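INFO batch 0412 | record 1 of 1 | parsing
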Amino acid sequence: MIDPAFVALSLLPIHVWRDVGQRLRAGDPPAAALDRVLTDRWPDQPEKRPDLIARAVAAIGRGARQGLDAMTWSDPQYPQALSAIIDPPPVLWTRGSRAALARHAVAIVGSRAASPYALDVADRLAADLASRGFAIVSGLARGVDSAAHRGAVAAGGSTIAVLGCGADVMYPPEHAPLAAAIEPRGLIISELVPGTRPLPHYFPQRNRIISGLSRAVVIVEAGERSGSLITARCALEQGRDVLAVPGNVLSGRNRGGHALLRDGARIVETADDVVEELSGVRYRAEPRSTGGAAAHDPLLACLTAGEPCDVDVLAERSGLTIARLLPRLFDLELHGMIARLGGGRFILIDRSC
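INFO prediction complete | emitting tokens
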């Protein structure tokens, strides 16, 4: 049974979720984290806690009736990369196969009013990457997002759709068949409680989850004010790679994408470009020996065998920002030097035996 306090935390305004993340990483149980945040933020509103708990219990009931799975921050299957971002969702409501979360993921996002060229590129990139074992993450929106999901499904691969509404609410409604096609091998995800309608401010908010689940974000087509640029910014803040597909300079549809390229984003023409950029994921994962640079990484000195350590503590010990720390941790994990535990914690693997 899901703890209502976790759901109550997710009902708090998004601007306090950094506080929530800090409390959870500090080891506070969800009820204690809820009490601490409410005391700090709303000391004169004692009625707020029982109201949140009542709404949480109602949401849990609705989720059960709709057949949704609730995954809390403390769940061992909660995506570890997502748990390490500064404002992780306390709860993820899901439909489909959780096995999709075990794959290395690449986000493919772009314009809703996409050109035929962008739709074709998104479809082909997603299909090629999915056939190589990557999970494709996007937002189930019209345009590039839906093309990416369809490409992954057509290739028999796995794709993850992050919604800006409840996981039991379909938006846009015409994508219900696509969502149904995703579920057997992929996953529908939302941080919003069941029944939440698709309001405009939820879509920029969910973009940090799209990037947080992914090792890299590929921008296929984005105007100067595209929401995809929010995802790119989140990716950079989280230490993910940002890549972009060049487009027609005459149409003006991809000015945002070209701005990313001018700022140093890697050019993507085929799936090979993405795989090459992420070669640390695909090729460093195979050698499990302690040889090479990873064995001498000074970050390892910040960990003690058998003692779990969370990301905030590692950042303090190493002097690295979270954005720089996360890619280093990914590489060390893939070398078999460290392991991930629940709640965004890492542990040094003892190789003395």
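INFO post-check: Confidence is low (pLDDT under 50) at residues 281-294.
INFO record closed
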